[in-house]
Design brief:
heterotrimer, A mainly alpha, B mainly alpha, C alpha/beta, A: mainly alpha, C: alpha/beta, 4-stranded antiparallel β-sheet, 12 helices, 42% helix, 24% strand
Chain lengths: 336, 288, 295
């Protein structure tokens, strides 16, 4: 797959990113409500308000503000967080690895779970297990990620499952001098299996909450594609060749069913990332999603801006990854 | 050889679909509950009674007959709050779904029918819009616009119109290619008339399915927003705020969280079932 | 087992399909034997049920169908109602298929090499390298040029003729005792047809594989086959050695088929379609057969 293809997709992402920046700018200034009044607490003097106005350049014309805004963004200056008094970029980059690891784990779980359900459903085509899988998928789909998170917490509390943690990223009892914030990868590389275990355990429920709705969608779409593939002539030949039904479903048909599944479910992966906003909050998981709600409630404009843009970048990155995997999976595209 | 079965009227077919029965039935029940709230709720939902805090449901040890589902941290009756919460859920979901549908359908029809740069512009807009994390954006919007039902409804509509737009656009393009449109154009009917009188009715069934889907989403988003404390002030009973409060007391009084969660899940499941059932009925291929 | 005991013995085979609470007879008491090394042509018009015979033998009859009478014996073993697991062990080294449509019979997501080696590894127990060597040899046998390159290619990169050669290679790969060729050249260009037919014949003769050749083209049967079975509406109308049947066809339908087939050595002959009256008579006979059987 050519580097040119990759470059082209990256270039196409830039206008989208620009559009996102514009909309963020517009929304936060045009919607009713004085942005400064939102950021300031009660009891502020008019002088304070005016001071803040100047600091944030809100005394200049909209056009002027916009130019400054874009300039700052291009240099990676997102400003300083009001509520946390730190550089926004630093704050976000510090917590980003946490969310990335969580999302990757959730995506992995979703693919395994959804894939297994789809294969089982297609294997038992027309018999009761398939209906069972459909029902299960429908149920999983109806409950959004944040409700799954709450349900898991309920289970843990009501059933007193003390072994299953429902907050934080790692047990307080373990000390870990991490170089990066990628605990999962680092603990694996440094062979600190106690850390690895704790991190995985803490990740389990949040990742599962994010994964289940996506798994349901994957299972539905993949199962339909699998059933479609199973009607093809090459499946019949595979039977004549003497391969078992399981192997045919899970290998011959699956390989062909992946491509349409990726196209149809690709965008759903971005929703998973969006779900971290609530799920991290519910599990007190220290990622960027957790910061988001507090930032909004605290009217921390720079932080909100930074987070929205970060999420947008993540979304675009995921879309890019989906496009690339589509090209990789489709033999016709690999050889032009 | 094979006799063509006489086509049954659509509504009769719809009524026999089990999904529509269960989903629609539950929704009608919910609507009834919401409408009759003042009469069937045993207590005033915002009435606090600090002597009656944390009462478990009536079937548990310390439960009391007067408070079937127990009380919360301020002594308020859970059942009554659930009933009044249904009102909010329904109002928000219907209004938000219709609003999102209106925006999305209009833009979708335009993009699909006019094509050209209009289509390009709208498609680009949809693409950028979808690059935003919906949950985060809705929280931002409501925080900015201030709390209240109207902002919740506007926020949901503003964020989710893209769902309608894409589907309607695709369907419009498909319809546009059909003969009846070509003949309408030949006769010289104005575009707007064609859109509204000819194409829209054919897009309607799809819209109906999308609307039920959107209502389910709206119920969830409203729950999220009130969980986070951004919907109505916590005095007013919404399922989401009940869940939020319940989270805090989950160790002492888990039922505070369970019941509103179940209400949300049941409503969303019912709406999904209704949507699926409608989809099955309205899909012409399946009509045999 | 003597050299003359049949590799395939079909006796009184009845097949019916269930559709909307009705049972539609597809095969009506088919008798057919193939001896080791024999090339047996199964002819008939489309819808005569010839493909179904092949599918029943291979165990891939449609889901809604069932064998309502008769037996199928392969190499002395009864396989009519064989379990899935047992049947799978028969495939590859027992019997194989050359399918009709080369465009759809190969899996578009896997390389040619994989699709050949997987059978070798499954049935012949070869390891990766040995299987690859064998696959190259097989591609040579079917006259594919630059076989190393083809091994790495995907089906969509090959022409129809090349794909059919690959399928032929796969069929012969595990040295089966019986190959069923289901109209293997129908989907190909005329020029390619002759080459492919020649290839099949050569490989068959070389290895002494029995071949059940299903086709609607009498001309092909004349050139390739030792024996012939004529099928109409699931009933065997005539059967015998090709030389005999062609010299002196006994059944009116066989004669009609011959008149409808173009002959390269007599290009001036007028072609005549099968007369409608004859078809009607045959249909009536078939229905009468059903009634007698159901009674």
């Amino acid at each position: 797959m050519s580097a040119g293809f990759l470059l082209k997709r990256l270039l196409m992402a830039i206008p989208t990113l620009f559009g996102v920046a514009v909309i963020v700018f517009v929304l936060l200034r045009i919607v009713p409500g004085d942005p400064i009044a939102m950021m300031i607490g009660p009891g502020a003097t008019p002088a304070d308000i005016e001071q803040l106005r100047v600091t944030y350049g809100l005394d200049k014309s909209i056009a002027h503000q916009f130019v400054l805004y874009i300039g700052d963004l291009a240099q990676g200056h997102f400003g300083t967080s009001i509520s946390m008094r730190q550089d926004v970029m630093e704050l976000i980059l510090g917590r980003l690895p946490v969310t990335i690891e969580l999302c990757l784990m959730a995506m992995l779980l979703a693919m395994i779970n959804g894939g297994a359900m789809a294969v089982i459903g297609a294997y038992y085509r027309g018999r009761w297990p398939e209906a069972g899988i459909d029902g299960l998928a429908g149920f999983m789909l109806a409950i959004p990620d944040f409700l799954w998170a709450l349900l898991f917490i309920l289970f843990v509390v009501i059933l007193s499952l003390s072994g299953l943690p429902i907050s934080g990223r790692i047990s307080h009892a373990i000390s870990f001098d991490a170089v990066t914030n990628f605990y999962l990868i680092e603990s694996l590389l440094r062979l600190r299996f106690d850390v690895l275990g704790s991190v995985l355990l803490h990740m389990l429920l949040p990742a599962l909450s994010l994964a289940l709705p996506l798994a349901a969608i994957i299972s539905r779409v993949l199962k339909t594609s699998l059933n479609e593939a199973m009607t093809q002539d090459y499946v019949q030949l595979a039977r004549v060749k003497g391969f078992s039904r399981l192997r045919i479903v899970a290998r011959e048909a699956l390989r062909n069913a992946l491509v349409p599944t990726v196209t149809l479910t690709g965008v759903q992966f971005t929703f998973l990332v969006g779900g971290t906003v609530l799920v991290e909050k519910i599990f007190s998981y220290p990622g960027i999603g957790n910061m988001a709600i507090d930032a909004v409630i605290n009217r921390d404009l720079p932080l909100i801006q930074g987070l929205v843009l970060t999420f947008a970048v993540l979304f675009i990155a995921i879309n890019l990854a989906v496009d690339m995997s589509y090209a990789l999976l489709n033999p016709r595209m690999r050889h032009g | 050889m094979a006799e063509l079965a006489a086509a049954r009227p659509v509504w009769r077919q719809a009524a026999s679909n089990w999904r529509i029965r269960i989903g629609g039935g539950f929704l009608l029940f919910l609507v009834a509950v919401a409408l009759l709230a003042p009469w069937i709720a045993p207590h005033d939902p915002i009435d606090q009674d600090l002597l009656m805090q944390y009462l478990p449901p009536v079937w548990a040890e310390k439960g009391e007959a007067g408070f079937i589902f127990g009380t919360d941290n301020l002594g308020r009756d859970i059942l009554s709050r659930l009933i009044y919460g249904a009102r909010i859920a329904l109002i928000v979901s219907v209004c938000a779904a219709l609003a999102a549908g209106l925006i999305g359908t209009t833009l979708g029809l335009l993009a699909g029918y006019v094509g050209g740069w209009v289509d390009q512009a709208i498609s680009r807009l949809v693409e950028i819009w979808m690059a935003f994390p919906a949950v985060l954006l809705s929280i931002v919007l409501v925080a900015v616009m201030g709390t209240g039902l109207h902002s919740v409804i506007i926020a949901i509509a503003v964020i989710d119109w893209t769902r309608f737009c894409r589907v309607v656009r695709a369907e419009t393009m498909a319809q546009k290619a059909q003969d009846y449109v070509a003949s309408a154009v030949t006769i010289g009917l104005p575009s707007r008339r064609i859109l509204i009188r000819e194409i829209l009715p054919n897009v309607m069934p799809l819209l109906l399915v999308l609307l039920t889907l959107e209502m389910g989403i709206a119920v969830i988003v409203e729950a999220i927003l009130s969980y986070v404390g951004l919907s109505l002030s916590s005095e007013f009973p919404t399922w989401g705020s009940m869940i939020g409060a319940g989270r805090q007391y989950v160790n002492q009084a888990p039922w505070l969280m369970v019941l509103p969660i179940m209400a949300v899940i049941a409503t969303v499941l019912a709406l999904n079932a209704l949507g699926d059932g409608l989809k099955d009925t309205l899909d012409p291929v399946m009509r045999k | 087992m003597s050299a003359d005991s049949p590799i395939l013995a079909i006796e009184g085979l009845h097949l019916e399909i269930r559709a909307d609470r009705r049972r539609i007879p597809i095969l009506r008491g088919v008798d057919l034997t193939v001896t080791p090394g024999e090339v047996h042509g199964l002819v008939g018009e489309s819808g005569a049920g010839k493909s179904m015979v092949g599918r029943v033998v291979l165990g891939i009859a449609p889901l809604r169908s069932r064998v309502s009478g008769g037996t199928v014996r392969f190499d002395g073993q009864e396989i009519t109602h064989l379990s899935e697991g047992r049947r799978r062990s028969l495939m590859g080294r027992g019997m194989a298929l050359i399918p009709q449509d080369p465009m759809t019979a190969l899996n578009p997501a896997f390389r040619i090499g994989d699709q050949i080696t997987e059978v070798l590894r499954l049935h012949m127990g070869l390891d990766k390298t040995a299987a690859r060597t064998r696959a190259l040899a097989l591609l040579n046998d079917v006259h594919i040029r630059k076989p190393e390159r083809v091994l790495r290619q995907y089906p969509h990169e090959l022409s129809g003729g090349m794909r059919q050669r690959v399928l032929i290679a796969i069929a012969f790969s595990c040295q089966p005792k019986l190959i069923i060729a289901d109209e293997p050249t129908t989907a190909l260009d005329v020029t390619v047809q002759r080459q492919v037919l020649g290839l099949i014949k050569a490989l068959q003769a070389e290895r002494g594989t029995a071949l059940l050749f299903i086709t609607h083209d009498l001309g092909v049967v004349a050139k390739l086959c030792d024996r012939i079975t004529v099928l109409h509406d699931g009933r065997v109308l005539e059967q015998g050695a090709v030389a005999d049947v062609f010299a002196a066809p006994q059944h009116a339908y066989t004669r009609a088929l011959m008149k409808a087939t173009p002959r390269y050595d007599r290009p001036g002959d007028e072609l005549q379609p099968v007369p409608a009256a004859l078809t009607e008579t045959l249909n009536a006979e078939a229905l009468a057969y059903d009634e007698v059987r159901d009674a």
